[in-house]
Amino acid sequence: METYGLNFKKSLGQNFLTDVNILKKIVNAAELDENDDVIEIGPGIGALTEQIAKKAHSVLALELDDRLIPVLAETLEPYDNIQVIKQDVLKADLKQLLSKYFDGQHRVKVVANLPYYITSPIIIHLLETGIPFDSLVVMMQKEVAERLSAQPGTKAYGSLTVRVQYQMHVKVAFTVSKTVFVPQPKVDSAIVVLSPKEVLTLPKDEQLFFKVVKGCFQHRRKTIWNNLQSFLGKQVDKEKLHQLLLGLDVSPKTRAEKLSIDKFIQLTNKIIDSKIIEK
User: Fold this and answer.
1) H or E stretch covering 99
2) When comparing pLDDT for 11 and 202, which is higher?
3) Which residues fall in the annotated binding site for S-adenosyl-L-methionine?
4) Which of 162, 196, 230 is the last residue of a domain?
5) Residue 111, SS3?
6) Looking at the structure, do residues 211 and 113 belong to the same domain, yes or no?
7) Higher confidence at residue 168 or residue 16?
8) Are 80 and 168 contained in the same domain?
9) Cβ–Cβ contacts within 10 Å for residue 87, how many?
């Protein structure tokens, strides 16, 4: 950064990883080989990009900060299997980009050191694309990693947990000390591996399922009874709602963190079947 006369942009969550051993561990966690095409989000100065390129068939790196594009062109010049484009991943048509830059003959993986401030939106965006990613191997704030991997009944278990674990297996590969970043963040990080899972039980309305989950966790300290009344509206038939919960063997005094993903799916389906609200 000194060489190019650049400063770190706090607004873009720029914390660059400088420990090559950690970079190699991330690549190992992604189990990359010549059969993989990789999307990297936020390559920064290209340290992780270089390690990915050494293993993968090709790399498409999306960088939002146009100041870094010429830096990347120079630092990654020795590699002919890397494409760097200026792109905001949250606004990108990833299917179109994959069609343009990848040949469709290889597995597609995401490997990235995600900006802390938009980690969750990026992960949700990737899941919503419908692209059959082989895996997502992403660095994030340790606290967020704990939320993604949480089990029902724990403090970290919430709507984000359910949203991600509905589609993906979640494994925390390893943690990373804040001391290996420049500039140094205030918290430690973790590498999380997300891999697709077969969803055996599907909700009758997936979008309503996501809304129900979010509604049930709206106020964590409130019971599922109170949160559902708020979500469904003041005109909801309370007796019908009470019977609906009892039919699921869920006490109205239960908090949302106690419910499994399957139970949320059952709850959504019951809400639809009971016609307690208009979809």
Assistant:
1) helix 94-101
2) 202
3) 15, 17, 42, 63, 88, 113
4) 196
5) strand
6) no
7) 168
8) yes
9) 17
- Tell me the average pLDDT across 44-67: 94
Q: Which of 43, 114, 102, 103 has its CA nearest to residue 74?
A: 43
* CA atoms of 215 and 229, how far apart (whole Å): 9
Last residue of a domain, one of 163, 196, 229: 196
What is the DSSP annotation of 155-201?
TT--HHHHHHHTTEEEEEEEEE-GGGEES--SS-EEEEEEEE---SS
For residues 182 and 16, is the Cβ–Cβ distance under 8 A?
A: yes
Q: How many domains does the chain divide into?
A: 2
Cα dihedral sign, 8-135-39-201: negative
Range of 93's domain?
Answer: 10-196
Q: Is 188 exposed, middle or buried (0-12, 13-18, 19+ CB in 10 A)?
A: middle
The CATH number for 57's domain is 3.40.50.150
Instruction: Indicate whether 279 belongs to any domain.
Output: no
The CATH number given to whatever domain includes residue 236 is 1.10.8.100
Lowest mean pLDDT among 89-98, 172-181, 256-265: 172-181
Query: How does residue 12 score in pLDDT terms, banded at 50, 70 and 90?
Result: low
Evaluate whether residue 201 is within a structural domain. Answer: no
**Annotated binding-site residue numbers:** 15, 17, 42, 63, 88, 113
**Quick one: what percent of the chain has pLDDT higher than 70?**
94
DSSP string, 196-258: E---SS--SSHHHHHHHHHHHTSSTTS-HHHHHHHHH-TTS-HHHHHHHHHHTT--TT--GGG
Helix (H, G, I), strand (E, B) or coil at 143: helix
Single-letter residue type at 279: K
Is there a single domain that holds both residue 34 and residue 164?
Answer: yes
What pTM does this model have?
0.91
pLDDT in tens, 105-144: 999 999 999 888 889 999 999 999 999 999 999 999 999 9
The answer to whether residues 66 and 176 belong to one domain is yes
